[in-house]
Amino acid sequence: MKVAIVPGDGIGREVVPVAEGVLRYIRPEWDYYPVEVGYGRWERCGAAIGAEEIRALSEADAILFGAVTTPPDPDYLSVLLQIRHDLDLYANVRPVRGPGVDLIIVRENTEGLYSGIEWSLPGSACTLRVVTERGSRRIARFAAGLVKGGHLTIGTKANVIKSDVLFRRCVIEEAEAAGVAWEEKYIDALCLDVLMHPARYGVIVTTNIFGDILSDAAGYLVGGLGMLPSANIGDKHAFFEPVHGSAPDIAGRGIANPVAAIRSAALLLAHFGYADEAVAVDAAVNAALAAGVRTPDLGGAASTVQVGEAVIGRIREWM
Ligand code: NAI
Ligand code: MG
């Protein structure tokens, strides 16, 4: 296995080494290599990512990513949008797991309001929301494939937005073809209901920006952004990253919560068939947290590195 390690900016540079340490402990024989992208690269050479980095990422079997800083500058092209597009990482899978909650948000990752098709005129700016039948059907099939016994929840604004009428129809047809029970909710009501009644939900499928917002909000259920991992899956590539960003407000202080990044490494292991190892990593994280080894966002006093050491310590005891 070739694993590209991409810390990015801010706390990405603090949490990714910890998650990499966990992966290396479990699979020391894999080939790990660093790739530098992000704001730091942009400041140095005027581009956040270059053709060479895209090639290095596309040659990897798996990518472990941190976060990148994206300034609200019209000349700055989002690294993540470019990577998701170039590697065709169409499924963004965001599990939210904790006491009383075990759900997966599946977000369409290549189109919708993040199509990248936008323009500015004096006094107005437009962003095109693109929904295609191909994109909707493939994310629907992916999400339906994750439903185990329960049902699929479809989040849209099909009552108001025409592009969601197409999305909704495609998802329903694919769910029925897969023999998966489904329900639908409008995304605004869904955001509230997921927070009020999380146990009612299993797999939720939605379009790009709605999934982005819903998954950050669902972080409330499990202790905040520092806890949420994600996987970006395409037919040829797989990319794993915490849901959170580069957190400039706490970067450089060694106090970022590495759990989201470590759990992203667990998703990587699970994706490539190392299910027992993935379970061991998640269990080690839970044991470390239960023992009080927590960063300040969780009310503790541990550092990023101390959490990583506690997690590896537990894995060492079990393996
Ligand atoms: P953010 O996720 O970086 O931070 C939001 C809040 O959560 C901050 O108060 C931060 O301190 C806290 N937080 C986030 N992760 C944490 C962790 N692991 N441990 C403890 N506290 C944590 O989102 P924000 O502030 O909106 O964006 C900051 C920068 O990150 C921006 O430039 C933004 O564009 C970028 N960003 C990048 C993402 C990515 O690379 N996937 C995703 C979201 C934002
Ligand atoms: Mg987000």
Automatic annotation (TrEMBL):
Domain (Isopropylmalate dehydrogenase-like) ranges: 2-311
Gene Ontology MF annotations: isocitrate dehydrogenase (NAD+) activity; magnesium ion binding; NAD binding
Superkingdom assignment: Archaea
InterPro entries in the record: IsoCit/isopropylmalate_DH_CS (IPR019818), IsoPropMal-DH-like_dom (IPR024084)
Gene Ontology terms: biological process: isocitrate metabolic process; tricarboxylic acid cycle
Keywords: Oxidoreductase
Protein family: Belongs to the isocitrate and isopropylmalate dehydrogenases family.
Protein name: Isocitrate/isopropylmalate dehydrogenase family protein
Organism: Methanofollis tationis
